[in-house]
Please model this.
Amino acid sequence: MIFYIILGGMIGAIFRLGLNDIFRSNLISTWLANFIGSLLLVYLFSLNNHGLISHITYSFWGIGFSGAFTTFATVNNQLFEALLNKQYKKVLILSVTTYLGILIFAFLFYYCLNFFIFN
Model:
């Protein structure tokens, strides 16, 4: 099981680096990675809870890939830097869109999956 988590993490980190190269903006690529990775994790969580994927598949894509692809530690660093530079508007926007925004989208996605697809 650990092998699949490590392998998924390696691939997730490579995809995350590719996203940085595509957007050339650390803020945009970080937000997209967290948004996409969170929705992927919600989808995989739903599939796993309904017994539609194996624990190995969930470990690879959910824990490994999504864990390495999402970069919430980078967001925290960006927030800390903005606070130190007294960029309070940036702190507010980044906090709300990342934490609250992604949480709301993830919940709605989970609800829609379970209501429309897995019901």
